[in-house]
Design brief:
Largest sheet: none
Number of strands: 0
Strand content: under 5%
Order of helices and strands: HHHHHHHHHHHHHHHHHH
């Protein structure tokens, strides 16, 4: 049981933790996003700016950890950056305090998002790590970082006893969990999970930027995040990968409907964290870039590179800064001899792909894929039938999103076709998790159709009343 002192420490850790992340990112990326450390652009909605900064803070903090000789050193250096950045942000708030006055509508968003965040905080903190992958991969990595007090080779990533632990996986959450345990001075099966909460809060805030007093938003909030709620507190990264990919599709859909640059910028900020959650994040990035190009093509947007780089170079630099830890970790893996157990891209993987095409394994992969996606596809079918029945137009937002669903799904199926493990076993162990981004994207597609139906019905009601 937690005593009063430990509860106070946890509260302090949560509060200071968010400020710590906020200060770091404001110092490094604030000038690029807002053109100044002490001024704020009015065009960025507050409920989009806050989570963007927190996402950036998580990634920058990870970069500091993996580049520092010790966890203690990373905290000292990060703390100095954070204090400077936070005071710059505070000065900006005092200068522009009128911007931060909350309307009733905004207050509803804040209360709703806060309620859901604290609803998830309970199981995150009070349910211990239990599932195998959480214990043997993500939080084993975290324990190694905590025990060694550093991220470098002293952590003994290549020790034979942990060869089973997928040591090539991204380590943002494990590094943060190790840092939290280092700060508190002990390790258990509860405390390191607090790292998940820091990833949850930006996602929920971004989700509530779509808040409206209608049924379609209630539909969205029930399916994301509650349809796979346990995946957000059990220590797996699959749930967060799916939520952030779904958020990208939501902002891309909003950009298609209302082509404001801030929507696309926010969507890309949701895409970058995928690289730091699982290896599948690379597939998510490829899919996301494909969806963006399809969107620009679909909207017949002519992109001239020179004006684009002249006007958006600061945003591009922000993205590049957030990609640095990804390349640093890949550099470490190459130097330390860490390889992926799936042998992707090797001649053996191509031979396995050919063999499985010939022996009928493709049918097995299709059957398992359809089984996992059947609920989302059925729900999509219901909404499409309703659209045709009510003689409404299919919203154009869903075309690039559904294209992305197909690309991501085909990518996951291709990985299973080249796996060196027994195919039946591998499918049984993981496909219900690896297809979560596809399912959530199907739900996003349904949301945009539902929103279109609801808006059209409101227009008809207004005309009838006239």
């Amino acid at each position: 049981m937690l005593n009063a002192v430990e509860v106070f420490k946890l509260f302090l850790l949560l509060s200071i933790g968010f400020l710590y992340l906020w200060g770091q990112v404001w110092l490094l990326i604030g000038p690029l996003l807002n053109e100044s450390l002490i001024h704020r652009k009015k065009e960025v909605p507050l409920l989009q700016e806050i989570p963007i900064l927190l996402i950036g803070g998580l990634i920058i903090n990870y970069g500091i950890i993996i580049c520092s000789p010790s966890l203690k050193g990373s905290l000292i250096f990060g703390g100095i950056l954070s204090i400077i950045g936070f005071f710059c942000y505070l000065f900006m708030v005092l200068r522009t305090r009128k911007i931060f006055r909350l309307s009733t509508y905004t207050l509803e968003k804040v209360v709703g998002s806060s309620f859901i965040c604290f609803l998830f905080l309970g199981p995150i903190l009070f349910l211990p790590l239990f599932d195998w992958d959480a214990l043997s991969i993500w939080f084993l990595h975290a324990k190694l970082i905590f025990s060694a007090g550093t991220f470098n080779q002293v952590t003994d990533w290549l020790h034979p006893s942990i060869a089973f632990s997928h040591i090539d996986y991204p380590n943002l959450v494990p590094a943060l969990a190790g840092q939290i345990s280092f700060l508190m001075g002990y390790w258990n099966e509860f405390l390191p999970k607090l790292s998940l909460f820091y990833f949850l809060v930006p996602a929920i805030l971004l989700l509530f930027s779509f808040y409206q007093r209608n049924y379609s938003f209630k539909f969205l909030i029930i399916l994301i995040p509650f349809s796979y709620a346990s995946r957000l507190w059990d220590g797996y990264m699959d749930g967060y990968l799916a939520v952030y990919f779904a958020l990208f599709t939501l902002f891309l859909g909003r950009y298609i409907k209302k082509p404001k640059p801030v929507n696309l910028i926010t969507g890309i900020f949701c895409l970058i964290p995928l690289l730091y959650l699982k290896n599948e994040g690379v597939l998510g990035i490829i899919t996301g870039i494909s969806m963006i190009f399809l969107t620009l093509l679909f909207n017949k947007v002519e992109v001239s590179l020179r004006p684009f780089f002249v006007t958006k170079w600061k945003i591009i630099i922000s993205y590049l800064i957030l990609l640095i830890p990804f390349f640093v970790w890949n550099y470490y893996k190459q130097n330390w001899g860490i390889t992926n157990d799936l042998e992707l891209g090797t001649s053996q993987s191509l031979l396995r792909f050919g063999d499985r095409i010939n022996n009928g394994s493709l049918r097995l992969v299709f059957e398992n894929t359809f089984f996992e996606l059947k609920n989302g596809l059925m729900l999509l079918g219901v909404f499409l039938i309703a659209t045709f029945a009510l003689k409404n137009k299919i919203p154009k937002e869903i075309i690039p999103i559904f294209s992305g669903v197909v690309i991501y799904c085909l990518g996951i199926m291709a990985v299973y076709m080249v796996t060196p493990y027994d195919l039946q076993w591998h499918l049984h162990q993981s496909i219900y998790r690896t297809l979560l981004p596809v399912n959530m994207s199907l739900y996003v597609t349904c949301f945009f159709i539902f929103l279109s139906l609801e808006n059209n019905q409101n227009v008809k009601n207004e005309k009838f009343q006239e």
